[in-house]
Amino acid sequence: MTRDQPVNIVMIEDDEGHARLIERNIRRAGIRNEIHHFLDGGRALQFLFEDPRGPALNGPSLVLLDLNLPDMSGLDILARIKADASPLKRTPVVVLTTTDDRQEIQRCYDMGCNVYITKPVNYESFADAIRQLGLFLSVIQVPEPEA
Asked: Where in the chain are the domains?
């Protein structure tokens, strides 16, 4: 992996309207990174961990995660990404969900999410958070795996 490797954005969002709105606002913020959109958790996990284009095998990414998916909870995906043995443990995760329950928000942070945003989101602060995470990813040096 090199420092100038582009960050892929992985959006896991089952509501097409929300997904289009999120993508439109990412683009409006001037972010041109590729966005891989998944409507369910199963396909997203397969991409994240097994696909040659996915982050486990192909470098840095940012995950935008809805918690309410048709086939599993976003919390299950967050747990897989942030597990100690996960190659994606340090991947930034932005949770985007309709739930504003304080206990659930705290649980997400305890599990390792970086930003929790309640939908409908304030897209200006959302775009700013995405830009900051993108900037962070662009300057960090990813250690080479030990042989």
From this structure: 8-133
